[in-house]
Design a protein that fits this description.
A hairpin with a 3-residue loop joins strand 9 and strand 10. The N terminus is likely disordered. It contains eleven helices and twelve strands. The protein has two domains: 172 residues, no CATH class; 179 residues, no CATH class. The protein is an alpha+beta fold.
Length: 366
């Protein structure tokens, strides 16, 4: 009978600690998820240019880790910070996308790394209250260092393991990429297709003054007066079409050598189709044998069945440049156009989408 009060006390203590345990576990999980995303994007999308370009992809993971450590040390401060960050990220991410309608699948996928932070922050606030009560009751930290710091060890160690594991997968890929340094026009014999690809300049990776590359829409409407990437009268409320890309697209105005954009159509170069890009992907100088099996044109998102995984290598790509996607001449619908990734994945984006990662490369027949 004498043990009952002790058991009751232990049960009460566990209930008091449970919100803190749950908040800590969930925050570590969120940090691991953001670490996987950050490291994966750094190797997949950001492996080019100086080191600061690569390291900035780790900012989300580092921020989550710092928030975790702050909340563990001072939950009364860390809790509100986590709530603020979670609410701000959710509003930033979903604000522009609500106009396109809510995608339930994407909403559920992003919940663990966005809105759930608000719940975690609230749990840490509750933990701050319980810590104060425990201190008032004479609670003291465990004497054993590992028990006293177990949460910090897990908070730092778990993301580091995720970083190391993901790096073991990616480093052999990015460190063995082939780059012959040639940025001139290239004749590429693909899988059932042979094309000459434009040299660096207006027909390939033409970076604009604002730091990115033109959208599919701007490339397609280049020749509409006034020629250029400026807004076009009559297209304020509608997108360009595949017919526009063929008639007024920038590629049509490229000089024969591909180094200049001419005032009149030259009809030498054109935009490649998604199928042509896919069939021209390579890995270590050999064609990757990527066949989409008719998937492009009937799906918005997919990956080609490649005999070997292609990579961001010459002669098709510039490994030291930002773009990892090429716009294709194809459209998914009247609002979206296809693009192909260097690894054989394909998707569609709004035709007005402009991004430092989306570029294009004109082609011509041999």
């Amino acid at each position: 009978m004498a043990r009952l009060p002790a058991l009751a006390l232990d049960s009460k203590g566990l209930k008091r600690k449970l919100p803190g345990y749950v908040a800590t576990a969930l925050m570590i999980l969120v940090t691991i998820l953001w670490t996987f995303w950050s490291v994966g994007e750094m190797y997949y999308e950001g492996w080019w240019g100086p080191w600061y370009v690569k390291l900035r992809y780790l900012i989300p993971a580092v921020m989550c880790l710092l928030l975790t450590l702050l909340a563990l040390a001072w939950p009364l401060i860390g809790g509100p910070m986590i709530i603020l960050v979670g609410a701000a990220f959710t509003a930033w991410w979903w604000g522009p996308r609500l106009e396109e309608g809510v995608d339930i699948g994407q909403l559920l996928a992003l919940f663990p790394v966005s809105a759930m932070l608000v719940i975690i922050g609230a749990l840490f606030l509750f933990e701050a209250r319980q810590r104060r009560r425990r201190r008032e009751e004479g609670w003291a930290h465990p004497e054993v260092w590992l028990r006293r710091n177990a949460r910090y060890v897990l908070a730092i160690g778990a993301p580091l393991l995720a970083f190391a594991g993901w790096s073991l997968y990616w480093l052999p890929i990015v460190l063995t990429r082939q780059d012959d340094g040639i940025r001139a026009e290239r004749f590429i014999v693909g899988d059932g297709v042979s094309l000459i690809w434009a040299p660096e300049g207006p027909g390939w990776n033409w970076k604009q003054s604002w730091g990115g590359y033109p959208s599919w829409n701007r490339v397609a409407l280049w020749g509409v007066p006034p020629a250029g990437f400026d807004e076009k009268p009559g297209y304020e409320d509608r997108y360009a079409t595949v017919a526009d890309m063929a008639a007024t697209g920038l590629c049509r105005y490229l000089s024969e050598g591909g180094s200049r954009v001419m005032d009149e159509p030259q009809d030498v170069w054109r935009m490649p189709t998604a199928d042509e890009i896919m069939r021209s992907l390579t890995r270590h100088g050999e064609n990757a044998a990527c066949l989409d099996d008719g998937a492009i044109g009937i799906a918005m998102l997919g990956r080609a069945a490649c005999e070997k995984t292609p990579d961001k290598e010459t002669p098709l790509w510039a490994p030291d440049a930002a773009p990892i996607y090429y716009w294709a001449a194809d459209e998914y619908d009247e609002n979206r156009a296809y693009y192909v990734s260097y690894n054989g994945a394909f998707n569609s984006q709004p035709k007005s989408w402009g991004s430092p990662r989306h570029s294009y490369r004109c082609v011509r027949d041999p």
